[in-house]
Design a protein that fits this description.
- This protein is an all-alpha fold.
- Helix content is 62%, strand content 2%.
- The chain has a two-stranded antiparallel sheet with strand order 1-2.
- A hairpin with a 5-residue loop joins strand 1 and strand 2.
Length: 373
């Protein structure tokens, strides 16, 4: 596959912006007890729109790696010279993830090691190495191999006390057992972690589907054929995911092979639609808020997450009776719960939080401040 296109994909920035804005929306309801079901993760097997957000972001990371590296390698840059940047970015992402887990209590004794940014860091590093040293054909083989290997491990390797292929609850799955062996006391839950060790393996496959999409978009094919290819390829992956689902259920917590296929298929199709609307047809005005979000995605994810925690744990409001409540609780009750139904109040709070950060990012965007990690 000859690669010739180096044109910046505005649609990728928009896709990234939509994804990160959605992530902030679902992470910040006014009240976790009253949330519309599409804004919650599936309880275990299956998926909701919320379960698409994280894999979409890893898919975008893969696409972006191809475009970033291809531009540099086109100028005869030594591949070895890219490693300091790759390693630096990996370490910064991982460190930011740990910092978000620490703030504001700084409880090092129970610091959660896995996390969203930590997984992004690992996927970014492995995919970067593979892009630098393997062809797209090898990357297809590695992606398929990872999905089959993970499926086989989860299905055939027995877990003490439960046996093999038991994944109807977190504690019985092999991925959770491995997390308990190495991460006890440092996980999201007592018995498992959705961003744990073994389940990072198929997450790498998610990143690689983005890498392969990046190669497709940089090929010499016409723009129309690229968009059609993304839609067809996405549909094929989606169908394959539901075929695998018959044996290995779609499950975000396990990051199952079927989950990789379904979410990557939807990501490819959604990017294809954005590509046709934005980069081919040139209809861009509507996308401005998402371009603003997409150009400082990691920055807003970190800052919004830290502020949300501080408003619950550190910032307090003293009430008339002398008692104190979290600033978030006071804000929610005063501005939203006082007039809207519980479900709507919770949603409007989350939406307002997204709009608040849009206003901040708009200032960055206007001043051309793009924080690169």
């Amino acid at each position: 596959m000859v690669e010739i296109s180096s044109k910046r994909l505005v649609s990728l920035d928009v896709f990234r912006g939509i994804t990160i804005a959605a992530m902030i929306l679902v992470n910040n309801p006014g009240d976790w007890r009253t949330v519309y079901s599409p804004l919650l993760h599936a309880k275990w097997h299956g998926w909701t729109p919320t379960d698409l957000i994280f894999p979409f972001f890893l898919f975008i990371v893969g696409v972006a790696i191809v475009f970033a590296f291809s531009k540099r390698l086109a100028h005869s840059v030594d591949k070895r010279s890219l490693y300091p940047k790759v390693i630096r970015r990996t370490l910064i992402l991982f460190a930011l993830g740990l910092a978000m887990a620490l703030i504001p209590r700084f409880d090092f004794a129970h610091l959660r090691i896995p996390g969203v940014l930590q997984r992004i860091a690992l996927v970014y590093f492995i995919c970067s190495v593979l892009v630098l040293h393997t062809s797209w054909r090898w990357q297809i083989g590695i992606t398929v191999g990872i999905l089959l290997l993970y499926w086989g491990l989860m299905a055939w390797v027995p877990v003490p006390g439960y046996g093999a292929g038991k994944w109807d609850e977190p504690i019985s799955a092999l991925s959770s057992y491995i997390d308990r062996l190495f991460l006890t006391g440092r996980m999201w839950k007592e018995h498992w972690d959705p961003e744990g060790l073994l389940s990072t393996l198929p997450a790498i496959a998610t990143g690689l589907t983005g890498v392969l999409t990046g190669h497709w978009l940089r090929s010499p094919r016409s723009e129309q054929n690229k968009a059609i290819g993304l839609l067809i390829g996405g549909a094929v992956l989606f169908a394959l995911g539901y075929l695998v689902n018959l044996d290995f259920p779609i499950n975000k917590g396990l990051w199952s092979s079927s989950y990789v296929l379904v979410t990557s298929g939807l990501a490819a199709a959604f990017l294809g639609i954005c590509y046709w609307i934005i980069d081919i047809r040139g209809w861009r005005k509507w996308s401005w808020p998402f371009r603003v979000y997409g150009t400082n995605a990691i920055t807003v994810f970190v800052l919004s997450g830290m502020l949300a925690k501080l408003m619950v744990v550190s910032f307090k409001v003293t009430q008339a009776d002398g008692s104190t409540i979290a600033f978030k609780t006071w804000l929610y009750q005063t501005l939203f719960a006082s007039w809207a139904s519980p479900m709507n109040a919770s949603f409007f709070y989350a939406l307002s939080y997204v709009l608040f950060w849009l206003a901040i990012l708009a200032i960055f965007y206007h001043k051309r401040i793009f924080i690169k990690i």
